[in-house]
Design brief:
homodimer; alpha/beta; Rossmann fold; 2 domains; seven-stranded parallel β-sheet; 13 helices; about 15% strand; globular
């Protein structure tokens, strides 16, 4: 076995961290490593935690780590930060908050930000999860902000999705709820001691009762979590949340839905891999040859259009391959 | 000239709306139409408005329509809703808010949501903007929620980017500011009568003074806008915002930056078009042939991995093309 792979499978933190860094930096050999690692993955239970900025996702993740450790499970946490293509790693504060687990060898926390213009954050997240799976973590928590399509792609790497809402976040929360409704397995009403919590709970229950989703055997439960500054209630509530997640895990296994979700996850991964096998090398060659530059100039001056340009590029690409 | 193209260039609302609907539905002939339309685009000034949910973007857009109409400019508005891949068009409420412009033939408002699993919302937004350009709108406002990479891709279709912030949105607003910092040309502090507005302004000024961006000749101004329920102040503030946007437009033209941005926009459009020329047909054939299904099953059982699968698919795809 490749020594990197061996070390990661033994749980070596430094080797795992380096590979995650390589994935984030889109180093070409990272994919080769993931390929070799793949046979050692697929055994962890993956929990996605999503919600608006300010919903308290990191505090909840931190509390869940504590709960799962009490149950003697090892935990990996991946905090995905979609806002930092420009700043690079603004989520640092969250990692600091989780420092109290730093001494615990059963906990492995890493963050991931986008770098470079080609996107692929969802693929990077999927691969970073694979590293943690190979390390043998029982539970992996993926935390992200739940808005755009890309964030939904990231959360689709999870087997169980927890959507965190807070009372009084303004009327556009409606939009958020609508968008996240279909992917939620469990809802958390966080900071439930605040004004408006009761109303949010009622609204959510009504929406859930109208949803066709409830017909398939699992009705997403709503867990209310009080303020973290009231430790007794907070820890009671987060223990209940951990319990609810475990129940969902059991449901997924017994109903055959876990297999179904793993299948869907595999489909997403093929699509992501195709993009890096086909699109990325093509774009790379267009950029380095200066052809993208030339075509953009033509389009800017309306001497061509993007579709004609794309057809020309595709044609040339095939001719070149044929020539090989 | 194609009759659809002719009608759109004459400003026909029904034809334009139908094409935007076709773009949204990813109908294959929509791209062909955009190809023909392309020569008639590139003359409008495109403003992007972005910010967190609840920041008041729609109210501001509505006020800007009024201001630009006073200056006798025709306006197109595209509200892009990235949260609705599941619910389909949750942004409806915003369109209702803009109804007061419905009688004005100089204003054209449409919303856009993602449909289908293949993504491409940024490309759809770019094409919907082209339709409005061909209609001859002087100004096009693109409104979106400013979080993930996809939303940043959407906002990159704009020549001038307005980032809307509100005081007291919790500490993760820091993250947001960091992510949007580099794309902002103008900042709005909305609901500036609220507690914390002064602090937000100070923080923002400090960040702007530290930013290397200010070196290139344009230092993003900060416009404070009061509550919409105080009509006199609100309208004074939004008039100032419209004025600031006009100044930025002038700066872009005089400094040559407008050409630069149009060039960058063309590059994005080529990338988007390549994805629909190459990736989408490939994925489509994989899905309809059942091959994606079969490969996913193998990967789920760890009998293969996504990269090996992607390589096999790519190889087969080339062989098939060679055989043609």
């Amino acid at each position: 076995m490749d020594s990197t792979i061996k070390k990661i499978c033994e749980g070596d933190v430094r080797t795992a961290s380096r590979l995650i860094r390589d994935i984030e930096d889109k180093r070409p050999d990272a994919n080769t490593k993931i390929k070799k690692l793949y046979a050692h993955t697929g055994k962890s239970f993956i929990i996605g935690i999503t919600g608006a900025p300010g919903a308290g996702k990191s505090t909840l993740t931190d509390a869940l780590i504590t709960e799962f450790r009490k149950l003697n499970k090892t935990v990996g946490v991946l905090a995905v930060d979609p806002t930092s293509p420009f700043s690079g790693g603004a989520i640092l504060g969250d990692r600091i908050r989780m420092q109290r687990h730093a001494e615990d060898s059963g906990v492995f926390v890493r963050s991931l930000a986008t770098r470079g213009a080609l996107g692929g954050l969802s693929q990077a997240a999927g691969n970073a999860i694979h590293v943690m799976e190979a390390m043998g973590k029982d539970i992996i928590i993926v935390e992200t902000v739940g808005i755009g399509q890309q964030e939904i792609d990231i959360i689709n790497h999870a087997h169980s999705v927890v959507v965190v809402l807070v009372p009084g976040m303004g009327d556009e929360i409606q939009t958020m709820k609508a968008g996240l409704m279909e992917i939620a397995d469990i809802f958390v009403i966080n900071k439930a001691n605040r004004a408006g919590a009761g109303q949010l709970q009622t609204e959510l229950s009504t929406m859930l009762n109208l949803s066709p989703q409830t017909a398939d055997g699992w009705k997403p439960p709503i867990v209310a979590v009080g303020d973290a500054f009231e430790p007794a209630t907070f820890s009671e509530n987060t223990a209940e949340l951990a319990q609810t997640i475990e129940e969902h895990h059991l449901y997924l296994k017994q109903s055959g839905k876990l297999t179904e979700r793993m299948h869907r996850k595999a489909m997403t991964e093929i699509k992501d891999a195709l993009s890096s096998c086909l699109m990325e090398p093509l774009l790379h060659s267009l950029i380095t040859s200066g052809e993208l530059e030339k075509l953009s100039e033509k389009i800017k001056n309306r001497k061509s259009d993007p579709y004609t340009a794309a057809e020309e590029i595709t044609e040339k690409f095939f001719q070149k391959r044929r020539g090989k």
